[in-house]
Structures are given as C-alpha cells and as structure tokens.
Amino acid sequence: MHRDTNRFADCLSDLCLVEKPVFLDTKFGPSMTDLMGYACNAKGDAVVLEPRPTRARRLEFLSKHLSRTISSDSPIRYQLLHRTVSAVLEAQLHGAAAAVVLVQSFGPDTAANFSDFSEFLNELGGGTGATKRVVSGPYQLGEQRDMPTYFLWWQQDE
Predict the structure, then answer these.
(1) Which of 22-26, 88-92, 125-129, 134-138 has the lowest mean pLDDT?
(2) pLDDT, tens digit, 9 for 90 and up, residues 32-67
(3) CB atoms closer than 10 angstroms to residue 146
(4) What's the whole-model pTM score?
(5) Which own/partner pairs from 68-71 qualify as long-range (CB within 8 Å, at least 24 positions apart)?
(6) Which candidate, 83, 81, 86, 80, places its Cα nearest to that of 59?
(7) Which of 3, 16, 65, 69 is placed for a possible disulfide with 85 were both Cys, Cβ 3.0 to 4.6 Å?
C-alpha cells in the first residue's frame, strides 16, 4: 500500500465541528464524532481529519477530576473515564447535589463490557464492583472530591 504523506503537508483547517453526527449503517441514528475537522493541504486538496487532543493532557485532566492517577497504559476504558468526568463537571456547573453516570447497554452479549465497568468502579474505590440495575455509590469525585457520584448499569434485553 502506497502512502502519500505529502497529502497532509501544510494542512490548514477550514472548519472544526464538535459532536458531528455521521450516519453510518442506518439513517435512524447518527454516530457522534467527538471532533471532525475539514481542511485543505498545500495543493488545495480537501482533507477530512478527526484530530484528538494529546492523550497525556486529557488523561491528566481526567485524573484530576477523578482524584486518581490514570496512566496512558491504563486498562480502564477511556469512555468510562470521559463520561464520568463529564457528568461530574455538568453536575458542578448546574449546582446539582449529585451526579449520576448511567451506562445503558443494548443487547445480551456484554459480559466483557460489564466486567470493565465493574473494574472501573473498583478502581474508583468501590471495592465490591457493580451489580446490574442497582445504583452504586456514592463515590466522592471532582477536583475537590466534593461531588457525590452514583453509577448505574442498565442492561437491555436481559
């Protein structure tokens, strides 16, 4: 496979969209791309990018708000880290008394996903892991460890 790396030389961004909906295999519900960039290279060729902030900077930010050190080689799923901190920050922003992280799982074949969720709660200090359809918590999260945060795994079709 020939790779034309010059195609990306001197790219200039024309437009960046946050949470850009992209229809994949169905027209009923789009996939949300965190950040989608549209650019042109030095030759004027259009290029579509999906840039990501540096992993180290993002993990440092997430670690601060989870009151845990998360290394770049951590086995914890990034989606759990990101969604948890998002819920904590939104709860703080709106003066809420607590944050709730709800993971809705579709389909019966999610044993590995639930195991990862349970391990994540253990990492946060829960010790006992999680039980499906039972609220776990509170975990004291946030930069000041002052936001009671609850977790719920909701399994469809089980």
Answers:
(1) 22-26
(2) 665 666 777 777 777 766 545 556 777 888 888 898
(3) 10
(4) 0.64
(5) 68/123, 68/124
(6) 81
(7) 65
